[in-house]
Amino acid sequence: MARRKKHKEIFALGNEAVVEGALIAGCSFYGGYPITPSSEIMEIMAQRLPMTEDGVFIQLEDEIASMGAIVGGSMAGRKAMTATSGPGFSLMQENLGYACMTETPLVVVNVMRGGPSTGLPTSPAQSDVQQARWGTHGDHPIIVLSASDVQECLEMTITAFNMAEKYRTPVVLLLDEITAHTREKIRIPQPDEYEVVSRIVPSIPPEWYKPYEETVRGVAPMPPIGSGYRFHVTGLTHDENGFPTSRPDEVVDLMERMHRKIDQFFYDIQMHDELMVDDADVVVIAYGCVARSAEYAIEQARASGVKAGLLKLKTLFPYPRRATEKALANARSIIVPEMNMGQMSREVKRVNSGRASVRTINRVDGQIITPSEILKVIMQG
Amino acid sequence: MNITGNEIIHQYLRHNKKFPHVLCAGCGHGIVLGSLIRSVHQLGLPKDDVVIVAGIGCSGRLAVYVDFNTVHTTHGRALTFATGIKMANPKLNVICIMGDGDALSIGGNHMIHAARRNIGITALILNNNIYGMTGGQSSPATPQGSVSMTAPFGQLEESFDTVQLACGAGANFVARGTVFHVHKLEKLMVKAIERPGFNMLEVITPCHTQYGRKNKYKNPVEMYRWLKSNAMERERFEALDEDKRGDKFPIGVFVERDEPGLEERYHELKARFAAGRNG
Ligand SMILES: Cc1ncc(C[n+]2csc(CCOP(=O)(O)OP(=O)(O)O)c2C)c(N)n1
Ligand code: SF4
């Protein structure tokens, strides 16, 4: 048997790992506008993409244009992404909603910083969790992922592209400044170690094609613009042919299908890691860099005889309800530490409906939540 | 066999789209769409290679009726989507249809940067001097002194000169036509579509419903008459003494350069790397 090729290992920033992941996933279109602490993603893309076979890089005049350009790039058949931080993410919202409505796959990385407004440009925060879910107007589903270390930055970026393509939807990857700017040794996976998903293109004759047709998966095939399937795309509420409609039954069909295509696959989408949760009395629910502090705190708690566990969220939306419910049913107490005023604990409390006691640890001063802060609350019982 | 203009147009309309269209009788936007179809036909472009990217406004609705690849985007942002499409697939003929509010107000920044970037897009700015779809509020092209819903006492601000703006920003080709001078408009449009780089064509088109009624024009015909008597070939206009110009305005070509578009430059860069990989 052939010896397995040794993994390539590199010493990389979280932001660099995002680029590696994107290129592995087949990203060939980047449009963006620089902003701290996400700029390295754009800078490295500017260097790497022109060297690849079909990579396109463009610096736009602002984030509104960046989002428009990647929607256009995706419609023309590319796997497209942009990266930004809080204020830029706000500017992207209108066109992000357009991508939801037109079911255009793409990936937006938001390396969160403290806010509101220009806030804390170079300090870590987890301030845009609810913005990622509800930042644009109207009712729509969206997939929001996070990563807590550099290896995960790479892996979750691949996952983000795969989900975007699979469900024809924008996917937001939320990072924090600590994860984005930590340098760690990571493994670049071999091509047979990961799955790369690409959108389904139609195989039927163009005259039969309906761009927003109901299918078993709720996701219609999507041909690149210019490939012989001519159709209309609009941000207006549209019928299955893509033409604007305000007929109540057609409006309802569209809205229900948009939600169903995400809802019915929530087992595939809702990702989390568990650490010693099964017998835990106290469960910490955390994501991003805070999950790493929490992991250390739990090991220390166990060492001193307290049954603590960690539920690390990798998917933030749709909210991993099943995993949380399990923790809520078995644990006496839940702790949600996060670097905002309580944006994710809101989801935990919603699922909890009074079953366990839910405590929060919140920091908004641009400082990391340390293991000892979490340990202190765990030890309070 | 000589086919008539109508027959040409029917080859390009979407028959599965529910007509009637949304435009008011007498609106100039339909004439622009007719000219666009005839220009594409004259150039012999395959339908699959044409992408119409439209903004939001009455002008933005044109995209829905024609059998090309059509994308109806967000207000003011058509050029940003078009930029993505063109960079992703430079073979496509990307044509942007925008209103004056769309292109110059909310989308003003994208307009100047698309021109500066000289990306291979044809930008058609349908200037009716007003916000049509939202009910007749002032646009950056509303002439000083005219009345609008948001300037009931007369517009206080100066209006933009679209042509000068595009020239200043560095577009490859800048022209102005009107929906009254249809043959000339078609010639300008053909040029704008076939050339490399960023090509801006401003089309002066009347909105009787929102602009004309509130100002001095009793009916659409009067607005077309106004276009007929005031639009003037650029050379003639420039020869005219300043004090004789009055309401007159120049039409024709203002800038014509053959610089390659951004997408061509980018692909040259890529070719350099590809040569390095293979050689
Ligand atoms: C972000 C945003 N702001 C405002 C609007 C409302 N709106 C729709 S069309 C329009 C202006 C249309 O005027 P113009 O672009 O000149 O095109 P016309 O209708 O005259 O062809 C406005 C302000 C919108 N759709 N989106
Ligand atoms: S409101 Fe004006 S621009 Fe809109 S369709 Fe009517 S005439 Fe045309």
UniProtKB/TrEMBL annotation, chain A:
GO molecular function: oxidoreductase activity
Residue ranges annotated for the Pyruvate flavodoxin/ferredoxin oxidoreductase pyrimidine binding domain, each copy included: 20-255
GO BP field: response to oxidative stress
Keywords assigned: Oxidoreductase
Claim: 4Fe-4S is one of the keywords in the record: no
Matches recorded under CDD domains: TPP_PYR_PFOR_IOR-alpha_like
Name of a matching Pfam family: PFOR_II
Pyruvate:ferredoxin oxidoreductase core domain ranges (all copies): 280-374
Lineage: superkingdom: Bacteria
Protein name per Swiss-Prot or TrEMBL: 2-oxoacid:acceptor oxidoreductase subunit alpha
Organism: Pseudodesulfovibrio senegalensis
Origin organism lineage: Bacteria, Pseudomonadati, Thermodesulfobacteriota, Desulfovibrionia, Desulfovibrionales
From TrEMBL, chain B:
Keywords: Oxidoreductase
Keyword Lipoprotein: no
SUPFAM superfamilies associated with the record: Thiamin diphosphate-binding fold (THDP-binding)
Biological processes, Gene Ontology terms: cellular respiration; small molecule metabolic process
An example molecular function term from Gene Ontology annotations: thiamine pyrophosphate binding
Domain Thiamine pyrophosphate enzyme TPP-binding: 64-203
UniProt protein name: 2-oxoacid:ferredoxin oxidoreductase subunit beta
Record lineage: Bacteria, Pseudomonadati, Thermodesulfobacteriota, Desulfovibrionia, Desulfovibrionales
